């Protein structure tokens, strides 16, 4: 982000910065004709880009957070082509004091019929219509496992695998499992979800809860709309207050706001033209750009007003402003953009797009500022800031601070070293972990639903495992059945999967059916009984159950169940152990089992966080170093510029560990962005130091740079802190933690730039 600098006003500076091609130098002397032409071009581009902003849509897709290019993603996509997605369902929970009350059961069955009448509904499973099997000489018959007449006790529900499955463990809730077809149009999914809520309301049920993929996407998009409005409102209020304090004039309010609005129109318009919807990441872009573009504007206006005070007319003042601050402003815009571009190394599509779009917006802000402001000030040449007479002397205050800093520099370095070591020690506490519902704060209402299902219905998180059989293996062979049974036992006892569905469920029911439906026979049949059981396995009456768990004529099998959302750190260990179990004890001889599913892919994003983060930081450091070397033409100055900005990044890692904040795809975006933003203070300090060094000793140059840029660094750091503090009101973890850690990074960088950087420069020969 661009920082305020002040003109050193010496001839060497102007001579150096006037080394521009004659055509560019000539263009910098604006006339009214050139200004009108420039503003016309800006207006035309803004109209074209802004013409489709009303087409922007809010959207949230869980699938977009899957790691791109991953082998498991490719397998999962092939898997769902056979079975469909295991998350195309809704949990419809209805609460009642007595869930077996006859009137309640009748109303529940009526609701089931109403929901079934919706064309998007594929099936609904009610616990009161679950069937057991009885087999007699005439064939396969079914019967209701439970009824409202014979109320089963808790032990009976547990034996039937219904407690925590269809009946809540709170003893007051019943769940309908509703399956719907896959929606490719979110508007249709939203309408279907609203229709379901209306049906429940019309049925007279007061205490109810509906949860599932389309519900979360509906709630998320509603939250995105509210979040964008809230963040923009807070940022605009903060910006207006800052502008009124800094400039104290109507012109000082309108001009910056105009630049900010144009920046948003260009960026959001580009999104509309490329068809990019507003998601959980994009919602942060407008407020971020408001903060960044504000610094560009303040930087330009302050320099222009300073030159007008020295007696220059508006044309020369504009010309000198562009020459003096243009290169430094471009460099700081470039470093900020690099911080966002570095996010392309994270293999998550929304994060990549967020980085590229924000980087584009940063560069748009630079272009608009240096096209619009010179043109407007050419046509309306009066100063922007209304001067306020004050006895406060920043020069004297900063001189006293600098003298004390140098006097106690050894103590300052010692204290900074101790604090840095203490803060960075928290790195050892860092933990990689994410949750199924990506991007929400822990106390948000949406996650309360997850907690409810974890507590009462044995988990919200879908579990899936695929089994492929070779042509030489038979699903109902003793060897295959034994492997599935051992695998099911492992998943229940070690992994913690509840209510598993597999071919064994059908085999158990057939075995019980052959014994008059007695539940004690609802077990996996012995090897010598499989021939008899297998005769009934492919009965047409059992086709619905088979279609959920097998495809390709029994060559592809799906095991599904539910687990609690305990975080990816918990399941990463379990997945590794499961992989070893499959490799060493299950797979082979025509039987290959493999964990898959949306939950598994979301958990797997953790594996990419560290490597992607290191690649992004390496790219950012290399790119920033390259630009700094070109700008300063000194390896030593480049190193001194980087040191005060690498320390804050290390401290942020440590603080994340001390605060027990998980490192995941929501928090991994912080570090490269913080580097790109924080380094700008150092760039302006070093730039001023280098210019002062042309006509002063090393120590004098440091002092002049400190007193000349200290106020600017303080003011713009305050802008960053206040601006990004708005994100602390966000319910999305990515927004909240970005704001939280950028504020911390700004504070740390401010301290190091004003306390450590001058001491480092004194060591320079």
CATH superfamily of the largest domain: Multidrug efflux transporter AcrB transmembrane domain
How many helical stretches?
A: 27
Morphology call: elongated
The biggest sheet, with number of strands, parallel, antiparallel or mixed sense and barrel status, is: 5 strands, antiparallel
CATH architecture of the largest domain: Up-down Bundle
Roughly what fraction of the amino acids lie in strands?
5-15%
Helix content, binned percent: 55-70%
Instruction: Compute the CA-based radius of gyration.
Output: 33 Å
Flag low-confidence runs.
Answer: 1-25
The total strand number stands at: 11
How many domains?
A: 4
What's the CATH first level of the largest domain? Answer: Mainly Alpha
**How far is it from the N-terminal to the C-terminal residue, by CA?**
30 Å
CATH topology-level name of the largest domain: Multidrug efflux transporter AcrB transmembrane fold
How would you describe the overall organization of this protein?
It is built from 27 helices and eleven strands. The chain has 765 residues and is an alpha+beta fold. The chain has four domains: 1-60 and 248-389, Multidrug efflux transporter AcrB transmembrane domain (Multidrug efflux transporter AcrB transmembrane fold); 67-79 and 454-604, no CATH class; 89-181 and 185-218, 2-Layer Sandwich (Alpha-Beta Plaits), CATH 3.30.70; 390-434 and 607-765, Multidrug efflux transporter AcrB transmembrane fold (Up-down Bundle). The strands form three sheets. Strands 7, 8, 9, 10 and 11 form a five-stranded antiparallel sheet that branches. Strands 2-5-1-6 form a four-stranded antiparallel sheet. 44% of the residues are buried.
């Amino acid at each position: 982000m661009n920082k305020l600098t002040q003109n050193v006003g010496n001839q060497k500076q102007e001579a150096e910065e006037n080394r521009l091609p004659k055509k560019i130098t000539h263009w910098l002397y604006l006339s009214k004709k050139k200004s009108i032409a420039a503003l016309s071009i800006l207006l035309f581009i803004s109209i074209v880009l802004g013409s489709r902003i009303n087409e922007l849509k809010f959207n949230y897709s869980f699938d977009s957070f899957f790691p791109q290019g991953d082998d498991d993603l490719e397998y999962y996509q092939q898997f769902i082509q056979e079975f469909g997605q295991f998350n195309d369902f809704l949990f419809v929970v209805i609460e009642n004091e007595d869930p077996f009350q006859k009137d309640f059961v009748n109303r529940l069955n009526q609701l089931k019929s109403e929901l079934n009448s919706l064309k998007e509904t594929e099936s609904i499973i009610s616990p009161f219509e679950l069937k057991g099997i009885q087999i007699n000489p005439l064939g396969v018959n079914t019967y209701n496992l439970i009824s409202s007449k014979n109320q089963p006790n808790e032990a009976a529900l547990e034996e039937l695998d219904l407690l925590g499955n269809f009946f809540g463990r709170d003893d007051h809730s019943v769940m309908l499992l509703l399956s719907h077809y896959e929606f490719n149009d979110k508007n249709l999914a939203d309408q279907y979800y609203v229709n379901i809520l209306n049906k429940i309301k019309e049925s007279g049920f007061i205490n109810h809860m509906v949860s599932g993929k389309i519900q979360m996407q509906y709630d998320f998009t509603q939250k995105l709309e509210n979040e964008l409005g809230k963040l923009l409102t807070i940022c605009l209020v903060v910006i207006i207050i800052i502008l009124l304090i800094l400039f104290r004039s109507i012109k000082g309010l309108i001009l910056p706001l105009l630049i900010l609005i144009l920046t948003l129109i260009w960026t959001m318009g580009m999104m509309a033209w490329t068809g990019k919807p507003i998601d959980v990441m994009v919602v942060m872009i407008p407020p971020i750009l408001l903060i960044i573009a504000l610094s560009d504007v303040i930087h330009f206006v302050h320099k222009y007003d300073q030159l007008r005070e020295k007696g220059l007319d508006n044309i020369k003042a504009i010309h000198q402003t562009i020459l003096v601050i243009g290169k430094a402003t471009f460099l700081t815009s470039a470093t900020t953009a690099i911080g966002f571009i570095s996010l392309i190394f994270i293999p998550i599509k929304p994060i990549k797009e967020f980085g590229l779009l924000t980087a584009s917006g940063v560069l748009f802000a630079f272009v608009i500022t240096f096209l619009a402001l010179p043109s407007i000030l050419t046509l309306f040449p009066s100063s922007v800031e209304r001067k306020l007479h004050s006895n406060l002397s920043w020069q004297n205050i900063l001189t006293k601070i600098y003298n004390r800093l140098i006097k106690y520099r050894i103590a300052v370095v010692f204290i900074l070293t101790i604090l840095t070591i203490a803060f960075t020690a928290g790195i050892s506490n860092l933990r990689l972990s994410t949750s199924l519902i990506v991007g929400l704060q822990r106390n948000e209402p949406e996650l309360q639903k997850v907690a409810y299902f974890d507590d009462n219905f044995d988990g919200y998180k879908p579990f899936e495992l695929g089994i492929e059989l070779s042509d030489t293996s038979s699903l109902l062979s003793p060897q295959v059945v034994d492997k599935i049974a051992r695998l099911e036992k492992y998943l229940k006892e070690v992994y913690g999967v509840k209510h598993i569905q597999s071919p064994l469920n059908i085999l158990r029911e057939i075995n019980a059916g052959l014994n008059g439906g007695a539940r004690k026979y609802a077990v996996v049949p012995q090897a010598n009984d499989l021939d008899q059981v297998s005769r009934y396995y492919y009965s047409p009456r059992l086709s619905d159950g088979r279609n959920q768990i097998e495809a390709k004529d029994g060559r592809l099998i799906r095991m599904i169940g539910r687990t609690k959302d305990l975080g990816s750190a918990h399941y990463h260990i379990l997945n590794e152990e499961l992989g070893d179990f499959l490799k060493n004890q299950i797979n082979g001889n025509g039987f290959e089992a493999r964990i898959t599913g949306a939950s598994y892919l979301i958990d797997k994003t953790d594996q990419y966080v560290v490597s992607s983060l290191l690649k992004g930081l390496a790219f950012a450091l290399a790119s920033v170093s390259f630009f700094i070397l070109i700008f300063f033409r000194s390896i030593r100055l480049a190193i001194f510029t980087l040191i005060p900005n690498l320390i804050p990044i290390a401290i942020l890692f440590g603080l994340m560990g001390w605060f027990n904040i998980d490192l995941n795809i929501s928090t991994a975006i912080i570090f490269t962005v913080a580097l790109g933003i924080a380094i700008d203070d150092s760039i302006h300090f070093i730039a001023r130091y280098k210019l002062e060094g042309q006509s002063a000793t090393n120590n004098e140059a440091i002092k002049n740079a400190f007193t000349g840029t200290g106020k600017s660094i303080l003011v713009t750091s305050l802008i960053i802190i206040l601006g990004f503090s708005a994100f602390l009101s966000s319910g999305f973890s990515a927004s909240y933690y970005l704001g939280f850690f950028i504020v911390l990074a700004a504070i740390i960088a401010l301290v190091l730039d004003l306390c450590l950087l001058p001491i480092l420069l004194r060591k320079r020969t």
